[in-house]
Amino acid sequence: MIPPAPPPPPRSRAWSWRSQAFRGLCYQILTLVLLVLAISYLMSNTFANMRTRGIQSGFDFLLQPAGFAIGESLFEFDSAQGYWVAYLVGLSNTLRVALVGIVFATVLGTLIGIGRLSNNILLRGLCAVHVEVTRNIPLLLQLFMWYFVMTELLPSIEAPLQPMANVFFSKNGLQYPLPEWSAGHWGTVFGLLAGVLAWRAWVRRAVHQFETTGLYRPGRTHLTGVAMWLSLTVLGWLAGGAPGELSIPEVTEINVVGGGAVTPEYLTVLIGLSIYTSGYIAEVVRSGIQSVAYGQHEAAVALGLSRSAELRLVQLPQALRVIIPPLTSQYLNLIKNSSLAVAVGYPDLVSIGSTALNQTGRAIECIAVLMLCYLTLSLLTSAAMNLYNRRVRIRDR
Amino acid sequence: MINPAVFIPIAARLPPSNAIGAWPWLRRHFFDSAANSFLTLLVLALLLFALPPLFNWAVLHAVVQADNAACRAAAGVGACWGLVTEKGRLILFGRYPYEEQWRPLIASALLVLLLVVSCLRFFWRPTLVLAWVVVFTVFYGLMKGDVAGLTPVDTDRWGGLPLTLLLSSVSLVVAFPLAILLALGRQSQLPAIRTLCVIFIEFVRGVPLISVLFMASFILPLLMPQGAKIDVLVRVLIGMTLFTAAYLAEVIRGGLQALPKGQMEAAHSLGLGYWQIQRKIVLPQALRLVVPAIVNTFIGAFKDTSLVTIVSLYDLTGAVQLALGDADWRKFFIEGQLFVAAIYFIACFAMSRYSQWLEGHLHTGTRRQ
Q1: How many angstroms away from the CA of A227 is the closest CA of chain B?
Q2: Would you list the DSSP string of A183-209?
Q3: Which residues of B touch A153 (CB under 8 A)?
């Protein structure tokens, strides 16, 4: 017979210094009071300083005309438009360089990370040198070096490099032919989208077939999918009347007109950011692959898989789960590092923000807008990557 | 009669003859598949294409003496290392008065020496903290002057290597206690304190360093009481310290989370209070786990210091831009930048190797072979 449990000891009195909960409450209230006092002291200083220096405050400046021109922009901007439009231009420029940079850095970084695990000593050494050099030199210095290459070492606009017909590469940036927009291109766009859907449906069908019958043709499913996608795009283009006008850049005596173009500043930031981040992504990918148990490699070899099939079917899918969280932080770093674009004169968010700050003198508001934009970008990126992470992680019961 | 129960080892057989020797080794490493052979040839071609011209440029046709005319003659063919001979002191010490540059030299040497000493485990004892305080005081006295008959030099003329060293080490050293408090606060049971720490850490980690530096250089003067001036170097130091503290706090939190819960429970059952537990049980173990990660944070801070160029302090990266303001030498920009890049590379590479070595070295007690 078990004796009944003794009653719990009476709870210590709530308002006693011996009660942990009460002490905790006191500490928290004390911290908050100190914080509020500090903030109000600093704010009173700020208001006094602003009064003596005659600085205005408030966010109304966002609606006033900006009064400065911006070198490059995705959409038309003239100086009579408000500061908020200027900020939007800056944001779009930041995104334009960061998103393309993320794609380049991921592709390059993945290849180099895999290369570091190759049994080919030459390749492994080359990849290791790339990783060490990019990671151990500050990004700002790398950007300055790329900018020097872009603006001093490249030939001038009179005698540009021509890697392909109608592609010009010079101190004035890169100019390339661009299809001219016409109504017939709606057919192409439609075909492109239909092609993606058809590809997806085809892969689903193949997976379904594999799950029900066990018939599996590696490689051929996606190959057929790509073929379907391309042919539907071409069909759409033909259905739209095959519009073929290209806007081809032409060299005049002083510059190149027509076609698509990117400035040397954009190229500098893009190349600098992509190469710098690729070193970090390579390390993330390498450690991810190395984290896959060695038995998986042995099993793959025992099954007779080739090295590329082993990477594609066995190692990368398992490594992906380890790779994604650190990869997310590299993406966040890339977005934040794109703020260094201001050093080479690319009109990104920071550059617009500091111009606005110099013109209006409203330091607090301008920097607040700047930080808010970056915080939002960071949060959105983490949210998107978390979503993806949830899709690829191992599902426990 | 051989006893079948006795194990008689026989010598291992040699590997098959087609697996030993130079050619099989070459084949295994370079030509084991068509793709691999292609890659080998590609890399070899790349090296053959790039290395000889690079060697010619950097060594064979290079101009070493500070001779502008010779450099101009060799432009495009040979490197002009003469730039480094000519502008080396400007790159290393920025705008510090020329005849006083022995002072930053000694100051940086002292700081580097202390950094090296701090890396050796033999010196990890409380007196090291005292050494840091002494060296920082001597560093400041030497650089600032106005004591012991040294001419005063304003902080806005400090630059180059000493500035880089000062900013990165001060921001890490000052950020360290702050980071411990933030990390503990983030793990705390008290909701208000935890929320404040989380907000601070996530906010700082969500914005780029440039915006923090902008904030430090534009908003900090507004926060001061009227009439008080705050030195530009101090402003930047505050900004960098807060930034480093947020990252360091996350590193330390990693160490805190890695500790088994039993440690805390055991400490509680011994009747230790909160701060006693942290000081005697938790922090010694948690910090030991994250020392390599702290070194990596320091590498990051060392590289991030280059950003102060944007708020017009001339550290190593800024000083090389400054040195090349001279129109005569502007053409040889890349040589100057390569020189500075080499300094950064050597410092960061050495530190990252040290961090890797430390990782293996520190865990020998807990790892089972």
Answers
A1: 24
A2: TTHHHHHHHHHHHHHHHHHHHHHHHHH
A3: 334
Closest-approach residue (CA) in chain B for A338: B208
Q: Chain A closest CA to B147's CA: distance in Å?
A: 33
| Strands, E assignment, chain B | 159, 314-315
Sign of the dihedral through C-alpha A220, A226, A228, A231: negative
Interchain pair A144, B221: CB under 8 A? no
Interface test with B, best of A17, A27, A36, A49 (most B CBs within 10 A): A49
**Burial of B277 from C-beta contacts in 10 A (0-12 / 13-18 / 19+):** middle
* Nearest residue of B to residue A365, measured between CA atoms: B219
Say how far apart CA B161 and CA B172 lie, in whole Å: 17
Q: What is the pLDDT of residues A331-347, one digit of tens each?
A: 999 999 999 998 888 88
Residue A205 lies in a domain: no
Tell me whether residue A98 is in a domain: yes
The nearest alpha carbon in chain A to B197 belongs to: A31
CB contact under 8 A, A141 and B334: no
This model of the complex carries an ipTM of: 0.86
For residue A52, being part of any structural domain is answered with no
Task: Return the CATH number at A356.
Answer: 1.10.3720.10
- In one letter, which amino acid is A256? V
The pLDDT tens digits of the residues spanning A61-104 come to 777 877 777 778 777 777 778 888 888 889 999 999 999 999 99
Task: State how beta strands B314-315 and A256-257 pair.
Answer: unpaired
Q: What CATH number has the domain spanning B88-359?
A: 1.10.3720.10
Q: Touching check for B57 and chain A: CB below 8 Å? A: no
Q: Does B44 touch chain A (CB under 8 A)?
A: yes
Across B35-48, b (16+ Cβ under 10 Å) vs e yields ebeebbeebeeeee
Q: Provide the whole-model pTM.
A: 0.86
pLDDT (tens digit per residue) in A222-257: 788 888 888 888 888 888 777 767 777 776 666 666
CA B106, distance to chain mean position in Å, is 21
CA distance from start to end of chain B: 42
Which residues in chain B are contacts of A18 at CB distance < 8 A? none
CB atoms within 10 A of CB A110: 21
Residues B348, B335: Cα–Cα separation, whole Å:
20
Rounded to a whole number of angstroms, the distance from the CA of A82 to the nearest CA of chain B is 22
CA distance B2 to chain A (A): 39
B208 vs A: CB within 8 A: yes
The answer to whether the CB of B128 falls within 8 A of the CB of B118 is yes
Range of the domain at A328: 83-154+262-392
Give the CA angle between residues A112, A113, A118 to the nearest 5°. 85
Beta bridge partners of B153: none
